[in-house]
């Protein structure tokens, strides 16, 4: 599933490709992608004549801001956007086509069919699901060390599921949580509330550097992720533990282990990320 860096990359690419274009019509080939309004025909009618003014991101969601409406789009497992000429043959698994008045088209492809689109009156999208309850945006100025600490303070939940929970912090998924916890030297099963000030500061820095480096590399291409222009991200070559089960830890050389935490495959260096805090050696 694309995480924050991948969605950010898609956002940046799409911004260059579709901003300023006016929608003439929309064809919906698979109605379940359209979650709001209920009728795909209504979705299509509402978008006629709308010009895309900007493409933004909130967590793992894309927001297409237009004159009167905002379209909120989630790629889920394998959703992809591409810009084509209207004469280009339609590829299989193309579920929604936005026909622009200049003869180009924005096409949404999704082999797994889990992606969603919601249309709201402009600005209203932030007050309603699916965006309403989303937590801190880690690449925003509001994501300070104090704000991060207050989200975790006193929580008895394990740190990994807490970081995955989009109501606390948005955009982090399995890959970037594993990488951030490794960088900070924190075991994914530690209780969030048990982290020391030093550990919280390390984790905060680790999340920022992991996400910023991944955005700079255009995201990771772990499965079939492709950005809006059909290019693949390169950050997978910088992943230190994710996908490296059995290989030596780049820091200490111990074998990286994979287990299941909170139902998700989890990669850990048993040496760099001890589960129990080191006990004082004083008897
Ligand atoms: Zn290690």
UniProtKB/TrEMBL annotation:
Complex and partners: Monomer.
Binding site for DNA: 93, 112, 155
InterPro entries xrefs: FPG_cat (IPR012319), FPG_Glyclase (IPR020629), FPG_N (IPR035937), H2TH_FPG (IPR015886), Ribosomal_uS13-like_H2TH (IPR010979), Znf_DNA_glyclase/AP_lyase (IPR000214), Znf_FPG/IleRS (IPR010663)
Keywords for this protein: DNA damage, DNA repair, DNA-binding, Glycosidase, Hydrolase, Lyase, Metal-binding, Multifunctional enzyme, Zinc, Zinc-finger
Gene transcribed to yield this protein: mutM_2
SUPFAM superfamilies: Glucocorticoid receptor-like (DNA-binding domain) (SSF57716), N-terminal domain of MutM-like DNA repair proteins (SSF81624), S13-like H2TH domain (SSF46946)
EC number(s) from the headed UniProt entry: 3.2.2.23, 4.2.99.18
Protein name: Formamidopyrimidine-DNA glycosylase
Pfam families registered for this protein in UniProt: Fapy_DNA_glyco, H2TH, zf-FPG_IleRS
NCBIfam families for the chain: fpg, PRK01103.1
Cofactor: binding comment: Binds 1 zinc ion per subunit.
Catalytic reaction equation(s): Hydrolysis of DNA containing ring-opened 7-methylguanine residues, releasing 2,6-diamino-4-hydroxy-5-(N-methyl)formamidopyrimidine; 2'-deoxyribonucleotide-(2'-deoxyribose 5'-phosphate)-2'-deoxyribonucleotide-DNA = a 3'-end 2'-deoxyribonucleotide-(2,3-dehydro-2,3-deoxyribose 5'-phosphate)-DNA + a 5'-end 5'-phospho-2'-deoxyribonucleoside-DNA + H(+)
The protein's role, per its UniProt record: Involved in base excision repair of DNA damaged by oxidation or by mutagenic agents. Acts as DNA glycosylase that recognizes and removes damaged bases. Has a preference for oxidized purines, such as 7,8-dihydro-8-oxoguanine (8-oxoG). Has AP (apurinic/apyrimidinic) lyase activity and introduces nicks in the DNA strand. Cleaves the DNA backbone by beta-delta elimination to generate a single-strand break at the site of the removed base with both 3'- and 5'-phosphates.
Single annotated GO MF: oxidized purine nucleobase lesion DNA N-glycosylase activity
Family: Belongs to the FPG family.
CC cofactor: Zn(2+)
TM helices/strands, residue ranges: none
